[in-house]
Design brief:
Elements lengths: L2 H13 L1 H9 L1 H7 L4 H9 L2 H22 L1 H7 L1 H10 L10 H15 L7 H15 L6 E8 L2 H6 L6 E9 L8 E6 L2
Antiparallel strand pairs: 1-2, 2-3
Amino acid sequence: MSLDILQQVLARLYTDTEFRQRFFDNPEIIGQEFCLNAEQVQQLQELRSPQINFFARSLQQKRLQAACSLLPLTYRALESQFSQLFGQYAPTYTPGGIKKHRQDAVMFCNFLSQIAALDSPWMRDLAEYEKGWLLTTEPQFRWHRCRLHYNLAPFLQSGSRQLQRQNAIALWIRLSPSAKTHYFQLPWF
């Protein structure tokens, strides 16, 4: 059994709520799935459930804080609902790589775009708007577009939540990897 496999199991225990519950319900089955021997399963069991749950909550809190800082407008619009919705989203995606917080925020925006539990439908547009800015801050992205159904300007300028329906195409364009991103909003019918 390699150290890599053991680390993979530990990572899943810390990041995957369903896997963590399955492990503590029946560690031998999980051990068989990953070809762990009895000693390795025992070592993992010695990490008590409260310890793992505490560490898992700490990781999720760190992800939440990163999402709040990367999506400040969405955070401001959703207020306390932001944390609740992030808690629903977090178990569905495990970020990885060197820019995992940015990718996590983008995936959270995708999650917000698909759920019906938002207080106002314009909040989906706001998440799409912030996702567009996040995506175009990456040098490899030259352009991004999305459809907006609400005029976000009153919220962006003054925090007003009384937004009117106004269909538009939001377009971010960067001419070269080092160039500034330009934003355009064009009406569509």
